[in-house]
Amino acid sequence: MIGYQFMGKMHSHAYRDMPFFFKTSVKPVLKAISGRKEEAVRQAAEEFGWESYETDWRKMIEREDIDVIDIVTPNHTHAEIAIAAAEAGKHILSEKPLALNVEEAKQMYDAVQRNNVVHMICHNYRFAPAVQYAKKLIEEGRIGKIYHIRANYLQDFIMDPSFPLIWRLKKEVSGSGTLGDIGAHSIDLARFLVGEIGEVSGMMETFIKERPIADLTGGLSATTDLKEYGEVTVDDAVAFLARFDNGAMGTFEATRFAGGNRNKNKFEINGENGSIRWDMENMNNLDVYFTDSPPGLQGFRTINCTEEEHPYAGAYWPPGHIIGYEHTFINLIHSFITGISNNEATAPDFQDGVINQKVMEAVEQSALNKKWMKIQI
Amino acid sequence: MIGYQFMGKMHSHAYRDMPFFFKTSVKPVLKAISGRKEEAVRQAAEEFGWESYETDWRKMIEREDIDVIDIVTPNHTHAEIAIAAAEAGKHILSEKPLALNVEEAKQMYDAVQRNNVVHMICHNYRFAPAVQYAKKLIEEGRIGKIYHIRANYLQDFIMDPSFPLIWRLKKEVSGSGTLGDIGAHSIDLARFLVGEIGEVSGMMETFIKERPIADLTGGLSATTDLKEYGEVTVDDAVAFLARFDNGAMGTFEATRFAGGNRNKNKFEINGENGSIRWDMENMNNLDVYFTDSPPGLQGFRTINCTEEEHPYAGAYWPPGHIIGYEHTFINLIHSFITGISNNEATAPDFQDGVINQKVMEAVEQSALNKKWMKIQI
Amino acid sequence: MIGYQFMGKMHSHAYRDMPFFFKTSVKPVLKAISGRKEEAVRQAAEEFGWESYETDWRKMIEREDIDVIDIVTPNHTHAEIAIAAAEAGKHILSEKPLALNVEEAKQMYDAVQRNNVVHMICHNYRFAPAVQYAKKLIEEGRIGKIYHIRANYLQDFIMDPSFPLIWRLKKEVSGSGTLGDIGAHSIDLARFLVGEIGEVSGMMETFIKERPIADLTGGLSATTDLKEYGEVTVDDAVAFLARFDNGAMGTFEATRFAGGNRNKNKFEINGENGSIRWDMENMNNLDVYFTDSPPGLQGFRTINCTEEEHPYAGAYWPPGHIIGYEHTFINLIHSFITGISNNEATAPDFQDGVINQKVMEAVEQSALNKKWMKIQI
Amino acid sequence: MIGYQFMGKMHSHAYRDMPFFFKTSVKPVLKAISGRKEEAVRQAAEEFGWESYETDWRKMIEREDIDVIDIVTPNHTHAEIAIAAAEAGKHILSEKPLALNVEEAKQMYDAVQRNNVVHMICHNYRFAPAVQYAKKLIEEGRIGKIYHIRANYLQDFIMDPSFPLIWRLKKEVSGSGTLGDIGAHSIDLARFLVGEIGEVSGMMETFIKERPIADLTGGLSATTDLKEYGEVTVDDAVAFLARFDNGAMGTFEATRFAGGNRNKNKFEINGENGSIRWDMENMNNLDVYFTDSPPGLQGFRTINCTEEEHPYAGAYWPPGHIIGYEHTFINLIHSFITGISNNEATAPDFQDGVINQKVMEAVEQSALNKKWMKIQI
């Protein structure tokens, strides 16, 4: 694994826990973790349970005892690492967004295809049992032709103007702001559940233009005593309209300025025969409505997706004994490892990463040019 | 009152009930109701408690015992009636949208100004105590500078393709579809709470293109045995992005194709110091979040707006004894009658109607031309 | 109508509004209202729309132009007024609890039976469309044999120790405290929905033993400047276990000391085939669960009981346009007036009042003697 | 660890995950797991990650490389194992209920005291961050003197009459039914948050008297092909009233016959200055109400207890990224291991187990004798 911040901890945990809950023919071994600061990465190795560490990621790729590279570094490094890993024949899991832009993303996808390695992008929310069950209901036609999706991803952790200028707020490191960090998740969920997006009209905004400069290597909780200010070069908030290839309408909004919404990743989908609602903050629940319920008995029902009928839920605890955020990663890792052991494609893969990136780039272009932009897949 | 369908019943009730709950120096007297079909309007007069009826609305305007004209007819008649009423010196309450287009709306506004009559447009949702209280909190600066409003008005009553082609689905009668019928309410609430909208980018869709032809004078529940089909000439759904003059971002969506949402008129507003959420289906409640709550104790609180601190609530029942949809009209009528008795302006008035119409027209133009449109007030 | 406080206003409103929403063969005429304080009752007559007033309730009973007596006075006067009204052949609606004790209640019931008048007790919550629909589902066997009811009626309006000693807090005037005032509603709902109660084990508590003395004729909002304190002689809170004749278990709790619960009248019923939940604060909604939903799709569904399938809802507004607390009274008055016009029994009637009183008396006895008490019907 | 069913899996997971999230001076090593069926326990050892296994629990106690005994066996074996383990100087974690009855529980408590080992009972719900935060608020006096607790623990997994006669339904193995299995959790939470219970009045019911006989060693999901039926000798449901030593009133209900409630462990506490609500199915949230909020702004606020101010939450993910059921065990194990490393008492310990058992026994006696029973601590 390359990187050791928040997502490094999360992925490490998922590799450790996955075999406890799932039987797979190959099991992950936590060989090595890499990071530039020796003391920090040494500590991370110990804390997260890795056998060894490296201070240069290229060493990881050279090592013959490593079959899988997991990329949890800041976004601007994804492409170089992934391409090198692919060339070395390693299977790759990359954090999202796949890259800084479509061009980079395509190069990554080319590399993994050329080298025939298993590749996956870490859109973990697909792997909530409730979301997987929503997918199943949609595929079975239970809500019919889809008319609408409205997806919001609302956070509030940078509302304070004294929150420092972390790497996620610098375009050269992160590519974009809320759009790539959380909007990307909504885009991925929408594509997973509704289908491909044909065109978008977007708007973006940076509410706080300058922030105190912090050590850019710091994680989410970086703090600073510095009095110097630097420019925020990414979006604080983004909203866009979308038209899907199948005719559905989409409205999307992602922001880090929605006070009181800590991690409100939610969507509602309306089809001709029913509707589905999901909200990450109560991620075990799925609200479902069917138009064919008897008159008088129609209403959204709240399903606690902890039964064996709900994908992945059977691996955990009895009905009603809920799971949390980290389990979306455990399920994703299960899918990734299964893909590796069967040498099968996984989803979402780097192709999804490319398409998600295309949607994001179209949103940015649209916001800049103030017109609708088409997405060419 | 001119018109006697769903809104005719609602307004009649509000005139009757208002004096029971509120003390006003002048009290409404239900002199006459008008409609083209004598038997139907006669019945309505009796059922709704009007002293007399007319079959030609021009008679109403000629009558000297009538001081106030309330227009609850289909949209394409609003302008002619309102202008005639204004010329005759009657005070006017008009249902929304004010007119078929901006041009008509302006003529109406000119007429009421020229004739110095009290005028009001029936955006009743402003008058829910929770919404009035939200306004108060915003005006007091409790949530600070506003970053976001996301407003949805979701219904599902025409999802069935066999639902007939009522007048609300014909552009020449209604002007627009969901946009003018329910989207207009969201626009009005946003302008009331956030401020004026500067530009919009919109999209519109008609999911069911043809429907069985029905008697166009029928109300919401019109049915038909006819086998003939006619074209739906208005939008089934509309969504748009908005930039407010004060820099806030808005996302709006109105649809009649969101299964399970009977009358889900809701919004969330995020400001620098807090957030506010409201949902018509639980209209007595207001969810409020403040960033200055102590760490650990931050969260949306649900206020049951039935206390004397909540505007209009003191006129009704003790705390926790909730009111309903009809009370928004009773409160609005109280405001209208108070305006008349004091010869003061009321809000929302025809000027609001004109501006709301401008926003709607900009949304339509934007959807047609696929570009952002500015609103000139 | 005899009495003119909170419930006087509520009943007056219901008599006025009922004919607007419902067609009935006889229509209520608001002949006279009665109260001891002339100025106050004169004002009430005007405000509530009564043709005349009396300062001695006996005059009301003597008047030949009055067919119906509605009793909304403090509880200790119900029996005398009702018996006199019955002897005079008037139909009677009485507020709950029916009387101070079972003995009085029985005398009232004897009187109305002997004189063959229509009688009703004002347990309005039965008349929420959602509750009526729950009754229908239960009668149709949709949830099967009932195992459980848990009913809470939680308020908080007297938590402040400086809240005055209103009549509802004096046993000689009110009979009991929370038990008779709000617990009685839960008992009535449970009997309506589940069946008769066989035995109870209860506990009662008075948390604030002394309060400032107020004018006992004051309503809910009585205030006082007096420095004198008097004893609270009724229960602040009551809880009891119940065994129903059909084997169901019941847990009941009523309190005025549950901070944040303004008028939380709620219940959940569990049967062998499903469950039902209701909460007055969202009174239009009914939550329903069926065990025969397909595996994976089981969950409580929230029905917005505003459709024509839901009893009484068709008389009001389109689906999703909610009604409020006062509509439970309008529906009840409709049932009462229909009973009078058909000379039919209504429900809940004085017999229900007697049985409810027996349950309350058993709870009080049980709390006093610390043992289970049986209810003999 | 002795036992390897549902709770065996859960505890194993918690021992593995705890050191990942928490720094402790000693770390658990998974030495051995024990069970009577060799093949099953061998598999469990492998699946759960134990170094070795035993088929006789006495061997575990003899082993010198084992310092801690974790008892997750059926209830009738707790006492014998715990006493033997204590005599051998092992620290002990026992599943709840502590024993079959008070007598056994006392012997266990005597044994651990006599041998000066660290002891803990596995009431995991105390360790939800939201519950810990509720405790903190109560201790700080934020809700003042407590008036009420109403606690429900509702499940539905044995509603189907064909569900087999598992060991939890046989009194000689489990001691009691819902009372000891889930009611015990509510009792423990109430004692933790409100204080000691002085007296109770209870009722118990067995709705399904006979069930198909299953292999009694089977876990929650035991199935059977047998046609033979056996008697259910424990309670399906229990409810009781309680008076706390500090004057608070309690109402408790635990049942496995509340359809639609998979694992609804919830409570509401009302104090003189505020209220607190919690529901395991949304276990990250705590609803809090304060009477000193400004008029107009009073209401229950929903706190997502995932911030660093919320006990244990800081060990996991960023705010809004929720945790699940299993984390209550991880937190509990952290507390247990910390207790061992510091040789300090932990809570809840065997003394709590004894007192909880006394409350349960009093409830049973009360239900049998139909009178209030006092609890002597």
TrEMBL record, chains A, B, C, D:
Domain called GFO/IDH/MocA-like oxidoreductase: residue spans: 131-277
Keywords recorded for this protein, A-Z: Oxidoreductase
Pfam families, sorted: GFO_IDH_MocA, GFO_IDH_MocA_C3
Cited Gene3D superfamilies: Dihydrodipicolinate Reductase, domain 2 (3.30.360.10), NAD(P)-binding Rossmann-like Domain (3.40.50.720)
Domain called Gfo/Idh/MocA-like oxidoreductase N-terminal: residue spans: 1-121
Keyword Cytoplasm recorded: no
The name this protein goes by in its record: Gfo/Idh/MocA family protein
Organism phylogeny: Bacteria, Bacillati, Bacillota, Bacilli, Bacillales
